[in-house]
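Journal club side-thread
Mid-discussion, someone asked how the predicted structure for our own chain would compare to the paper's figures. Pasting it here so we can look after the session.
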Amino acid sequence: MNNTLTPYTCQPRTRAQAPRAGGFALIGAIGMLALFALLGTAYVRYMMIELEDTRQHLDQIRAQHLASGGIYAAIGEIGAALDNGEALKKEYTIKANAYRYESGKRVAYEQEIEVSVIDESGRIDINHAPPQLLAAIGFDAQAIDKLNKAIPAPTGPASGSRQWLYSVDDLLTRNILNRRQFNAIEPGLLTTYTVEDHSAPTHFLNLNAADPDILAAIFGISDPAELSQLMAKRPFASWQDAVAKSGRGPSTLNVALPLESAFTSRCFRLHGEVRMGFEGIAGRQASASVEAVVLFKKDGSYAIRYWNERKPRLTQAGEGALEAHEASGTGASPDTPPTPEETSPDGPENETNKATP
């Protein structure tokens, strides 16, 4: 057995090999630092975007509440004017504050809500319109028959398939009219909101606010000059006064409305909108609008018959005002349920998930 040991010679590390491992480690460390810096920057940027989105969302909520508050303030103004026998305005400017927390303090910024008023009482309530009047504005005999079968009998309660129409659009959805017939009758002349008590539907069509086409249908006037003369003789004090001023005998009228006619208005369509801005703060601004139909009752209370909140939107500072949302008169079901303002314990007015007739 050979016990001779073979000597081992240590080879010194060459000059080229010495820094290589350390260089890789340094590059790796720098790369990790760069990655962490990038992730940190992205996180900060993401949080800034989230913070701005939250601020904008809050501004949209503020704008929506301001628009709704403007409607309620206008309701108060109109109610006071009706109680005091004062003339109503076509537009109301409501001032209210929007608040922001800045540097730990609650800062108020005054905003303006513009509320326009359209007289709903000058439209024909299709739940209680006489057949002759419906025929005069374009309903054919078949449509009138379908309508009479769809709504409760004059002396009977709502039951089963016989229900009051909640909106003018129900003429389509309940197959009373087809689309061609619906478009032909000018839906803007119609409403379902002006009758306070379905069991006693009286004095709900204000002849002093009625559209010329409605007056022409009632009095059987086809001559534009004659219609203009009758319009110029308003206001009417009573049904008899209106007939006398028309210069026509009762037998020449399309329909007599001694019980249905009114000469003051109690039902109004309100459209409130706000374009919320903050003085000294540049950037996007929040806009919102609300549409409502309000019936002022004889006992001094009021009922919100229709409520529709238009989705708030953001606009760039310096842009033009929010375009007005035209009151269509078709009364589609509201996107947001109305706040119950009813004092009557019964009837469809207590419904909160749709427009109430």
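Post-session note: Residues 180 and 198 are 29 Å apart (CA to CA).
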